[in-house]
Amino acid sequence: MPKPRRIAPSILAADFARLGAQVSEVVDAGARVIHVDIMDGHFVPPLSMGPQVLSALVELGLPDVQYDVHLMVERPEKYVADFAKAGAWNITVHAEATPHLNYAVQQIREHGCSAGVAVCPSTPLDVFRELDVDLALCMTVNPGWGGQSFIPASAAKIARLRELLGEEVELEVDGGIDVDTAPTASEAGASLFVAGSAVFGAPDPGQAYRDILAAAGV
Ligand code: DX5
Ligand code: ZN
């Protein structure tokens, strides 16, 4: 059975001064996964936010909402405990960011979270042959910035990744996802679609969320 398609709005593109209200808007529209991008200024050039922001969102107490933490940081295993404590549902670490990926996945599970592994566009998928993950994240842009265009070669990569993972594992795509690219990623086998600027850059984020969900084919 193919996994249901879900959209994860990324708060990176939200208005930080109105973060709680913006998240509530997409949750009211039906979103149940919220994507939280963590950047350290090393693995990727920008800085974004730390676990305090996640804690603040969790404390809003929005029912049934899962927070999906994407760690774009070097040696992510050092931060797993902090984000688990702050209330993450899933924690994703980059394959390129640590020589101890198996250990990082183990740590995430020991802290009671779903364990994700991400690969950049130029990283081969071989790592997923050696690891058992709950979620595989295929970057469809180079990590570090919102608002970039979906890399066309990603479609074939997503399809290869789906074949490798089987039907049960969550396959997340991140970068340049909107109503035009979501169908391509969905046909290739993606199940969880991160959308930042296409949701929070739209005049009505709730409507934009619903439009992308429809485009992904739910
Ligand atoms: C990029 C981040 C993304 C970002 C996506 O490095 O990992 O999650 O928020 O932004 P859009 O949807 O604007 O490409
Ligand atoms: Zn992300």
Report what the structure shows.
By secondary structure, the chain is of the alpha/beta class. The protein has a single domain (6-215), classed as Aldolase class I (TIM Barrel, Alpha-Beta Barrel), CATH 3.20.20. Helices cover 34% and strands 20% of the residues. The protein is built from 9 helices and 8 strands. The chain has helices spanning 19-28, 51-58, 80-86, 101-110, 127-130, 154-165, 182-188, 197-200, 205-216; strands at 6-9, 33-39, 66-72, 90-94, 114-119, 135-139, 170-174, 192-195. Helix 6 packs parallel to helix 7 and helix 7 (182-188) runs parallel beside helix 9 (205-216).
Short key terms for the protein model shown above:
alpha/beta, single chain, 9 helices, binds D-xylitol-5-phosphate, TIM Barrel, binds zinc ion, 20% strand, 218 residues
Quick recap of the structure?
It is built from nine helices and eight strands. With 218 residues, it is α/β, with parallel strands linked by helices.
The SS-based structural class is alpha/beta
Q: How do the helices and strands follow one another from N- to C-terminus?
A: EHEHEHEHEHEHEHEHH
CATH fold call: TIM Barrel
CATH class: Alpha Beta
Total DSSP E strands: 8
Give the assembly state of these chains: single chain
Instruction: State the end-to-end CA separation.
Output: 14 Å
Total domain units? 1
Bound molecules: D-xylitol-5-phosphate, zinc ion
User: Could you name the ranges where pLDDT drops below 50 across 5 or more consecutive residues?
Assistant: none
Backbone shape: globular
List the total number of helices: 9
